[in-house]
TrEMBL record:
Role, per record: Catalyzes the ferrous insertion into protoporphyrin IX.
Cross-referenced InterPro entries: Ferrochelatase (IPR001015), Ferrochelatase_C (IPR033644), Ferrochelatase_N (IPR033659)
Organism of this sequence: Snuella sedimenti
HAMAP family: Ferrochelatase (MF_00323)
Molecular function GO terms recorded: ferrochelatase activity; metal ion binding
Compartments where located: Cytoplasm
Taxonomic superkingdom: Bacteria
Protein name: Ferrochelatase
Keyword Translocase: no
Positions contributing to Fe(2+) binding: H188, E291
Amino acid sequence: MKGILLVNLGSPDSPEPKDVKRYLGEFLMDERVIDIPLVARTALVKGIILKTRPKASAAAYKKIWWEEGSPLIVLSERLRDKIQKQVDVPVALAMRYGSMTIKKGLQQLVDKGVDEVLLFPLYPQFAMATTETITVLAEELRQDCFPGLKITSVPAFYNKADYIEVLSNSIKKYLEGKDYEHLLFSYHGVPERHIRKSDITKSHCKIDNSCCITPSKAHEFCYRHQCLEVTKLVAEKLQFKEGSFSTSFQSRLGFDPWLQPYTDRTIERLGKQGVKNMAIVTPAFVSDCLETLEEIAMEGQEIFHEMGGENFITIPCLNDDSEWVALLSKWINDWAVKETITV
Ligand SMILES: C=CC1=C(C)c2cc3[nH]c(cc4nc(cc5[nH]c(cc1n2)c(C)c5CCC(=O)O)C(CCC(=O)O)=C4C)c(C)c3C=C
Ligand SMILES: [Fe+2]
Ligand SMILES: [Fe+2]
């Protein structure tokens, strides 16, 4: 029997510093997130980051935490439940980090008689820290704990026409009747080094103005290309005028160069340039989370107001939007019934 495992990033068990510390320890010790040798990673994460960051992160989590739990987890559960109503195969949900492990998710499916799993990383764009870390861990678990299981992974779906349509519709619906001069597409950043490491040609990605718009097979695994492409395809679909939208990257950590331009500096610049009304959308996340609800909707808004901006519109992620649920259910049904994955 077939079954689906949806996988999102994860959250701490609670917004208390001890739970945030445990969660960040697992997250940041992932070699596909902080991709330096183990000894240096351990020294950096355990010796420096985990000594100070959990307290500050816990304070941020407390500002956005819901009565039912972490927004990212609650919204992912709502998505799973709605999809389950539209597909005939069992749907489970797991998180790459934290207590809702991929191992538990696979076990839930196996307990229901599943022997063929569609592994669905809930990330539109490929990155070492998104799709790759999930598929690698799932394969390790299959070999170690579930040798009889067949696992098929859904690749990044950033350029699929039906995904772009659903995303565009949600942006359009949310902005209907609202006044704004500029729409910023803000994606989670990654260190530039990650882009070079994922370049399968080992020569294409220069992280300049041209590589990501010059056709290359590197783009199948280029996070920067895939982010820029989502902006381009949505802007084409919604017929945005040149100059009325742009792309930036948020949530950088540490001192290495990360993808630019940075979101906080872009918001600052827009405010300084006299933009009074801006909107912001965050298409690297399918569920609202700390990075959208705190970093963008709270901190981003504060920066904009300090720079003289007046109206800051944050567009929700796709969350459990009905068109999004219908699209994911269609992709799943195509796989379960027709043996094909259209994504
Ligand atoms: C597109 C998705 C994500 C990528 C790529 C990504 C890369 C990445 N992240 C960090 C460090 C942190 N990220 C944090 C939170 C966080 N990150 C993502 C998604 C991506 N991260 C999400 C959805 C969240 C929110 C989780 C939630 O519970 O709501 C955090 C924790 C918060 C904080 O202390 O700032 C850290 C740290 C690195 C180093 C990285 C590298 C590629
Ligand atoms: Fe590129
Ligand atoms: Fe992150």
